[in-house]
Amino acid sequence: MTHDTPTETVRAVLHDLRAVDGAVYAAVAATPTPTLDTALRRLSRTADHSKISFSVAAVLALFPGRPRRAALAGVGAIGVASAAANLLGKRLVRRPRPDREAARVVAGRHVPMPDSASFPSGHTASAVAFATAVGVVLPAAAAPLGILASTVGYSRVHTGVHYPGDVAAGAVLGVASAAVSLTAGASLARRRR
After folding, report:
1. Which of 5, 90, 130, 179 has the fewest CB atoms in 10 Å of its CB?
2. How many CB atoms lie within 10 A of CB 180?
3. Pick from 157, 50, 168: which is nearest to 109 by CA?
């Protein structure tokens, strides 16, 4: 019976999680999905710079009341998520991007490989942040936006630019960013009254 220190235990758990992460990435890469490849590649590219979320926000902002408040909360959440992922997460963790060629990700899935670090997925963080914040303010939008955000996250693994763990971390960051945006919005609304 071994008596590992807490640090050794944490290292062992992280090693095992990285192994699972790599195995899931490899399994996705090895699974032929010719029907999905083009659609997921397009979705991944369209989600660059939160273009999908900003488009949805623009439509919501056309309607006064709750839809406009949802749009503002969603855009605020994107701002928080993007800053947290790109200015903090990627710079602190500095995880290299997956080796798409070694994993034999089909060329028809490829999107440009970003220069930034892999962890966390900024696309996922922003999409989940937007979907969560909008869904809280406008519950009817929660399910469709949640499905869209989940699909954007998966598309980043499918196209070979992120490990599943990067996407999972991005989703957690997105939920936290939505909470920050919603709290800030509620605080501003109270001050105005």
Report:
1. 5
2. 17
3. 157
- What burial class does residue 17 get, using C-beta atoms within 10 Å of its C-beta: 0-12 exposed, 13-18 middle, 19+ buried? exposed
CA distance 74 to 78: 6
User: Residues 90, 170: contact at Cβ < 8 Å?
Assistant: no
User: Residue 187: in which H helix or E strand, if any?
Assistant: helix 164-192
78-87 tens-digit pLDDT: 999 999 999 9
* Nearest Cα to Cα of residue 152 among 129, 176, 124, 175: 124
CB within 8 A of 141, min separation 6: which ones? 60, 70, 131, 134, 135
Angle of the 164-192 helix axis to the 122-137 helix axis, nearest 10: 40
User: How many Cα atoms are found within 13 Å in the side-chain-facing hemisphere of 128?
Assistant: 24
Q: What is the DSSP string of 94-162?
A: -PPPP-TTTTT--GGG--PPPSS--SS-HHHHHHHHHHHHHHHHSGGGHHHHHHHHHHHHHHHHHTTSS
